[in-house]
Every structure is written in C-alpha cells, then in structure tokens.
Write a structure and sequence with these properties.
With about 45 residues, the protein is mostly helical. Helices cover about 45% and strands about 0% of the residues. The protein is built from 2 helices and no strands.
Length: about 45
C-alpha cells in the first residue's frame, strides 16, 4: 500500500504523503503462534 501511494504521488500533482501516528507501538507477535491459533480455532489440530 505504501508503494502504491508513493507511486501515485510521483505521477500526479500531489506532493505530500501523510504517515499518521508514527509513534504507535505494535506487537507483531510470532507468525507461528498465529498459525497454531488458526488451526486450533478451526479444530484441525
């Protein structure tokens, strides 16, 4: 999505891009944990 917006800015008359709140902290976690949770939720484990 970021690349799409920057490409749009490059090829149009728009000259700015707003990032929003860059001080936000997120815990992206471990992908393995999420996959295991998906399996358990679906009853496939």
């Amino acid at each position: 999505m970021l690349q799409d917006r920057l490409t749009y800015i490059k090829y149009t008359t728009r000259k700015e891009f707003r990032l929003g709140n860059i001080d936000t902290q997120r815990d992206w976690g471990d992908a393995g944990d999420y996959v295991e949770a998906m399996w358990l939720t679906c009853g496939l484990a």
